[in-house]
Amino acid sequence: MNLHIETQGNGAPLLLIHGWGMHGGMWGGVPEQLASQFRVMAVDLPGHGFSKTEKGEGRREKGEGSAEVFPFPLPPSPFSLDYIIDQLSAQFSEPLTVCGWSLGGQVALRWAMREPEKVQRLILVNSTPCFVRRPDWNCAMAAETLAQFATALQQDYAQTLRRFLALQVRGCENEHELLAGLRAALFSRGEPDMAALQGGLEILRDCDLRSALPGIRQPALVVAGERDTLTPPQAAQYIAAQMPNAKLALIAGAAHTPFLSHPDEFIKHAVNFLHE
Fold first, then answer.
1. pTM of structure
2. Is the pLDDT assigned to residue 66 strictly greater than 90?
3. Beta bridge partners of 5
4. pLDDT in tens, 192-243
5. Which residues are CB-contacts of 207 (< 8 A; sequence separation ≥ 6)?
6. Known catalytic residue: 102?
7. Residues 147-193: pLDDT tens digits?
8. What is the DSSP secondary-structure string of 38-92?
9. d(Cα 258, Cα 21) in Å, to the nearest integer?
10. Residue 228 designated active-site
11. 51, 77, 80, 102: which is the annotated catalytic residue?
């Protein structure tokens, strides 16, 4: 399939990958600001935004980790983590810096594992190697909470996405202003495919990349919001400690969207890293 990609600027290529249920337009003013120094590409993932899918496209695969550990009902979806990466990889032939936000960070990590010659640097924004709590992993969302999202998605997906936006900004310094902006942008590129939303929840439920982190050797900047309740900053600290060439940037006062709530600080960290 052809993914919708918006490109600005010239220079070294930088790909922005959004989170669950979002689209490439949710990055706000970040692409324009970075485009003064880089060629910035903001993608709509399969089934999101303007990246529409053909009926039956995609393939069903088991994600990283075990679905049986945290069972909750989800209708079959073709949107596995590796399917998404296949679609992204087909769009780009040159080496990239990949910036992934939330679920997009898990996509970026897995892509860096699969194709280290293509993914040369990483910026991981409020991401985690394992979104759901496990017996040996507490800095994550409870499986029961994610299960409630899966059930609510079937009943009223639009309201479920709006609720998810509220969780992303909870505790942030300018929470109400951010939430209004996110809600205005959410469906500005149309409504996401239900199968893509379900597939994203499967990835969040099943994916556990903790054991792979020491083998991901690309330079990485791990950005975390100090007040993030969806992917706690302890998860970012873990990533930065486990990856051999990673460093942490903790943004005070930010929640799950530091590039929107604290854009100048986010841009400064990203530019400094990309010029190293």
1. 0.91
2. no
3. 43
4. 998 899 899 999 999 999 999 999 999 999 999 999 999 999 999 999 999 9
5. 63, 64, 65, 81, 106, 110, 129, 130, 131
6. yes
7. 888 888 888 989 999 999 999 999 998 899 999 999 999 999 999 99
8. SEEEEEPPTTSTT----TT-SB----SS-GGGS-------SB-HHHHHHHHHHH-
9. 18
10. yes
11. 102
Residue of 81, 27, 13 whose CA lies nearest to 189: 27
Measured from the Cβ of residue 243, the count of other Cβ atoms closer than 10 Å reads: 24
Could you tell me the CA-to-CA distances from 125 to 45, 132, 251, 270 in Å, in that order?
17, 17, 11, 10
Q: Is 256 a catalytic residue?
A: yes
- Total number of residues shown for the chain: 276
How far is the C-alpha of 124 from the C-alpha of 119, rounded, in Å?
13
Which CATH number do you get for residue 175? Answer: 3.40.50.1820
CA distance 256 to 225: 6
Catalytic residue among 228, 261, 262, 269: 228
DSSP 13-49: EEEEE--TT--GGGGTTHHHHHTTTSEEEEEPPTTST
Beta carbons within 8 Å of 33's beta carbon, 6+ residues apart? 263, 267
Domain holding 91, by residue range, is: 5-274
- Choose the catalytic residue: 4, 18, 48, 256: 256
Give the CA dihedral 157, 159, 161, 163, nearest 10 degrees: -140
Quote the number of domains for the chain: 1
